[in-house]
């Protein structure tokens, strides 16, 4: 056992001293880690979602991300935000007044419609493209990181994504998006350039009304026959409380939002008029909303027109 002698003749046990110093160092580091972790958690809690400086909002909820080179081709990127907005009754529509009005049907207002179909305006024209002719010309697979704060498990998320993709592909009668696989790697939406990966994941975007967003890269200019989509990413805001295994009006429905975001991935744009409010591609949603789970007449007309 080694000792060192210091002034005054006292001897110090070096081994015990080193051990004590190490314990102090570990304790200080642990306290620093706790403080840093708490600070990081607080910063994460207070984080406000914002696109990078290169993003330019060209219309409400649509951001232009600039140009990049993808496999030798010049492509452009756009991000599309799904916003939270509470639904309000359409003007003049009052359930229980004895009149089956536009906007009501046997499911929404059985006391007025008495089994007859409502006289709804024709919404089959309720669709818009990211750009006319901009669609997938090759089939690419995608990857999913299922980690989320609400306990949605891997089987539900992956199988539901497959089912939602099938809705669009069945309507188009066209194989558009590929197969999915799971990963534990951290994924990041491509705001600056493509990375040859189509990615789906949850991220805490902060206390904002952005429920989710999709990033789509492609060729959107020039003659329509030469336009195409080359990559997509999809991000769900984990600051919201998600559900979907069973309906719950207090939860944000995963299937509802995912079906909408996949509409962007296959080439359709958002809708904001009252006539189109029941379409999957309507640009607003809210807790308990499930109206976007099933494609409506405009969604079907749009995907068929794009891939027909």
**What is the CA-CA span between the terminal residues?**
85 Å
Helix percent band: 25-40%
Number of contiguous helices: 5
> What is the count of structural domains?
2
Described by strand count, sense and barrel closure, the largest sheet is: 9 strands, mixed
Briefly note the CATH topology name of the largest domain: Collagenase (Catalytic Domain)
Percentage of β-strand residues: 15-25%
Assign the structural class, choosing from mainly alpha, mainly beta, alpha/beta, alpha+beta, or little secondary structure. Answer: alpha/beta
- Cα-based radius of gyration, to the nearest Å: 26 Å
Question: Can you give a write-up of this model?
Answer:
With 308 residues, the chain is of the alpha/beta class. It folds into two domains: 3-46; 56-89 and 123-307, Collagenase (Catalytic Domain) (3-Layer(aba) Sandwich). 26% of the residues lie in helices and 23% in strands. The model is unreliable at 1-12, 22-47 and 88-93 (pLDDT under 50).
Topology summary:
Layout: E1 3-5, E2 11-13, H1 14-46, E3 56-59, E4 62-70, E5 73-84, H2 110-113, E6 142-145, H3 154-172, E7 180-182, E8 198-203, E9 210-219, E10 228-237, E11 242-243, E12 252-253, H4 254-266, E13 284-285, H5 297-307
Parallel strand pairs: 5-13, 6-7, 6-8, 8-10, 11-12
Antiparallel strand pairs: 1-2, 3-4, 4-5, 5-9, 9-10
How would you concisely characterize the structure shown here?
Helices cover 26% and strands 23% of the residues.
Key traits:
alpha/beta; 13 strands; 308 residues; two-stranded antiparallel sheet; Collagenase (Catalytic Domain); 26% helix
């Amino acid at each position: 056992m080694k000792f060192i002698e210091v002034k005054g003749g006292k001897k110090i046990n070096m081994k015990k001293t080193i051990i004590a110093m190490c314990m102090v160092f570990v304790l200080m580091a642990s306290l620093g880690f706790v403080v840093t972790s708490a600070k990081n958690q607080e910063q994460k809690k207070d984080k406000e979602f914002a696109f990078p400086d290169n993003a330019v909002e060209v219309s409400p909820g649509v951001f232009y991300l600039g140009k990049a080179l993808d496999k030798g081709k010049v492509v452009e990127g756009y991000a599309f935000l799904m916003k939270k907005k509470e639904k309000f009754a359409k003007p003049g529509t009052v359930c229980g007044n004895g009149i089956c009005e536009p906007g009501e049907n046997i499911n929404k207002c059985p006391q007025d419609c008495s089994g007859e179909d409502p006289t709804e305006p024709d919404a089959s024209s309720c669709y818009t493209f990211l750009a006319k002719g901009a669609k997938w010309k090759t089939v690419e697979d995608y990857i999913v990181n299922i980690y989320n704060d609400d306990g949605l498990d891997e089987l539900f998320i992956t199988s539901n994504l497959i089912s939602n993709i099938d809705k669009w592909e069945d309507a188009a009668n066209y194989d558009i998006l590929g197969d999915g696989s799971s990963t534990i790697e951290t994924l990041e939406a491509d705001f600056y350039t493509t990375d040859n990966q189509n990615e789906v994941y949850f991220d805490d975007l902060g206390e904002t009304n952005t429920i989710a967003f999709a990033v789509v890269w492609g060729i959107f200019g020039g003659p329509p026959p030469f336009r195409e989509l080359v990559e997509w990413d999809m991000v769900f805001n984990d600051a919201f409380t998600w559900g979907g295994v069973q309906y719950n009006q207090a939860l944000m429905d995963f299937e509802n939002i995912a079906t909408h975001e996949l509409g962007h991935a296959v080439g359709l744009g958002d809708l904001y008029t009252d006539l189109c409010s029941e379409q999957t591609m309507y640009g607003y949603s809210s807790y308990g909303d499930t109206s976007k789970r099933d494609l409506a007449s405009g969604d079907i007309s749009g995907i068929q027109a794009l891939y027909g």
